[in-house]
Amino acid sequence: MLFALPVLLVFVVFSWGPIVKGLVMSVQQTNLVDPVKWVGLENFRYVLTDPGVGQAALNTVWFTLLALLFGFPVPVLLAMFLSELRGKSWLYTTLAYLPVITPPVVAILLWRFFYDPSPSGMFNSILGTVGLGPYPWLDSPSSAMPSIVLEATWAGAGNAVIIYLAALTSVRADLYEAAELDGAGVVRRVWHVMLPHLRGVLLLMLLLQVIGTMQLFTEPLLFTGGGPQGSTMTILLLIYNYAFVNGDYGAATALSVLLALALAVLSAVFQFATRGWSTE
Amino acid sequence: MNRFAIRCAAGLSVPFLLAACSSAPSSTGDSGSGGQVTITVGDRPTSSDPANRASFDQKVSDFEKANPDIKLNPVETLWDPTTFQAQAAGGQLPDVLNVPFTEPQGLIARKQVADLTKALKDDGLMDELNPNVLKIAQDQSGNVYAVPTAAYSVGLVYNRELFTKAGLDPDKPPATWDEVRQDAKQIAQKTGQAGYAQMTTNNTGGWMFTTQTYAFGGSIENADGSQASFDDAPSKAALQALHDMKWVDKSMGQAVLYDIDGISKAFAAGKIGMYMSAPDAYRTLVNVNGLKASSFGIGPMPQQGGDHGTLSGGSVQIVSPNATDAEKAAAIKWIKFSYLNKYVNQDAAVTSAKSGVAGKLPVGVPGLPVIAADQWSTYQGWIKPYVNVPLANFAPYTTVAADQKIIPEPPVKAQEVYAALDPVVQTVLGNAKADIPALLTKAAGTVNAKLGR
After folding, report:
1. What share of chain A is helix, strand, coil (3-state, %, to 5)?
2. Which candidate among A115, A241, A272, B245 keeps its CA 20 to 30 Å from the CA of A170?
């Protein structure tokens, strides 16, 4: 116990201390220089009546849905495909993982260049050769969020691929052999051997993805600044604006607390609902 | 898709960051015994910029020699809105820091800067400064919270080469918004590039909308900053002009989302004919983004329906709110020595211009005088041999800007107001059927809620 004390102390001070402090700040008005003013639930009232918060919440949920629909299956399929390849699989794995090591800021600046809305933009000129476009990509409220999902999927898929591949290598080789002897093709092997083995890790990744995508920040900040017309303003970007642009820490922490609560409830519901699914 | 680890960490770090900011401020600077004062001064160039760093360090040591009772502690801290609040809270702000004109009013309202009125009066510097520009740094009772050291007013930057290609006179930029519309249309038709573009994201949309509203004779907030005042005729006319350029004339190109960085790059690449900016855009466009100096042109802010004025830009020096009286006095001395001396001392003017030329920085970019007008023209004479920018290209701006009225930022919560106005400009440029009066009424509601907080 005595030996654990320093670790415990560090954990309490640096991990839980700030969380508690954040909770306290959400009921204060402070500019971090003057003495603080206790305002009760005023900050919560303020953020809940800010019309921007409703839109940001909807945008955030919209991103999460799009990311689940398009972003979630991609790494699963990619991992299954890679695990089926014989020889040089390290090469394909490396290629799949490569985008992950590109620093997000660099990747986003690069993609912003790709998404140039003029007919001479990178994507538009490629699509133009087959008679499509030009598309406004980031410059239209309807296509901005899907464009961000596309980049985010490209940037993040590699991470998930590695995790799925690790899970797939734990599948006993004799199961595949048995399936092959029974005359199972690729589709049936995937359905009857791979997917059942991935089930636990898939559920975990799903939860992590929901929590992760709900905290979308870097992409809208660097791609669109929350525009056009507020269509990519997310909760986290709004928290950042409250705190670091407006200097309104009370509102920023109040919204952070609300987001944390929503995610905690979501996780609990998810765990409860999927209790029976994660084991065979 | 799962960049979850980073995102979880980012999510957790928000409350952490915010809470970490809340530690009690400790005093910076140190008043030692024997009247010795130590102050930290920001904006020291980094080691990747050796020429400027050496000249800064030289200035520090010259200052210390001239003021043996003051010790300087130079640090590389620059103004950065994302870290400023944390630094202010943690007592980590340098005693002197350079910040842009957009900030003083917010900093004053949040009490994050020192009141310098007494120190400035004691020093005598108050009388030497240009009272028009000083307004940027004053509260409503006239107390001064910062020292302006560079000032510009927003004008219309234009590409002289595109003007020529479009058959327009490059020495005659448009003087009214009707002419802007005409010229933009001609540029788009003759060259295929966007005739005019406007910043729209990260609060620059609201910022430039404010500038344009001023040019149409409107205002953003009422005098005491308690109510939004932009849902009236001048703002509507300003947005209508943008709408018509984009959707009727089709002279604004496809891109809607521009911030300063994006618009500078696109302009330097020859894709934009005109946009609103200050003369100091020259450095970003020519030295950083490679625009040909001969293509750079700037005119005064186009007006509409009378001579209304334009928004000002530039930089001020702020002093940490924790500074003692002795530290404030020392800070004023340093600000004077470091930034203003060149305007009143010929040797300092020549040295500064020479080091600018050696460091391949633009020397002689016109601006507004931060000191009294006659002293300003004397200074211009001193640096004349070292000027390395094509002054003729600035002539349309300089002949008008000196007399053009300058109007400060909205007095209360300027950045929050700009943030609320970004989507308005984006909607007008993104949606041909945008209902301009409804957009302004809605934004005014949002802004009023913020002003009342």
Report:
1. 75, 0, 25
2. A272
For residue B146, the SS3 value is strand
Q: How far apart are CA B42 and CA B60, in angstroms?
A: 11
DSSP B129: B
The phi, psi pair for B365, rounded to 5°, reads -60, 125
B14 with A239: Cβ contact below 8 A: yes
- Measure the CA–CA gap between B115 and B141, rounded to whole angstroms: 12
- With CA atoms as reference, report the closest residue to A153 among A236, A231, A67: A67
Question: What's the rounded Cα separation, in Å, for the pair B71 and B342?
Answer: 22
Is A156 within 8 Å of B413 when comparing Cβ atoms? no
**Using the 8-state DSSP alphabet, how is residue B150 labeled?**
E
How many other β-carbons are positioned within 10 Å of the β-carbon of residue A116? 21
Exposed / middle / buried, residue B223 (Cβ in 10 Å: 0-12, 13-18, 19+):
exposed
Alpha carbon A255 to its chain centroid, in Å, reads: 19
Dist CA B136 CA B102 (whole Å): 9
CB pairs under 8 A between A and B: 195
Tokens of A27: 């009921």
Angle at B415 (CA atoms; ends B410, B416), nearest 5 degrees: 100
Q: What part of A 195-214 touches B (C-beta under 8 Å)? A: 205, 208-209, 211-214
Residue B275 CB partners (closer than 8 Å, separation 6+): B156, B157, B196, B197, B198, B199, B263, B267
Q: What's the gap between Cα A81 and its chain centre?
A: 23
pLDDT tens digits, one per residue of B399-449: 888 778 888 888 788 888 998 999 999 999 999 999 999 999 999 999 998
Shortest alpha-carbon distance between residue B85 and chain A (Å): 7
Residues facing B98 on adjacent strands = B317
How is residue A120 annotated by DSSP? T
Distance of CA B440 to the CA centre of its chain: 25
What are the pLDDT digits (tens) for B182-231? Answer: 999 999 999 999 999 999 998 899 999 999 999 999 999 998 888 999 99
Render A4-59 in DSSP notation, one character per residue.
THHHHHHHIIIIIHHHHHHHHHTTEE--SSSPPEE-TTHHHHHHHH-HHHHHHHHH
Residue A161: count other Cβ atoms within 10 Å of its Cβ: 26
What integer pLDDT is reported at residue B42 of this predicted model?
Answer: 94
Rounded to the nearest angstrom, the minimum Cα separation between A243 and chain B is: 8
Tokens of B133: 């520009």
Per-residue confidence at A245, pLDDT binned at 50, 70, 90? Answer: confident
Task: Give the relative orientation of helices B346-358 and B50-66 as an angle to the nearest 10 degrees.
Answer: 160
Q: Which amino acid is at B341?
A: N
The H or E element that residue B96 is part of is: strand B96-100
- Put simply, the chain B residues between 63 and 122 with a CB less than 8 A from any chain A CB are 81-82, 85-86, 88-89, 106, 110-112
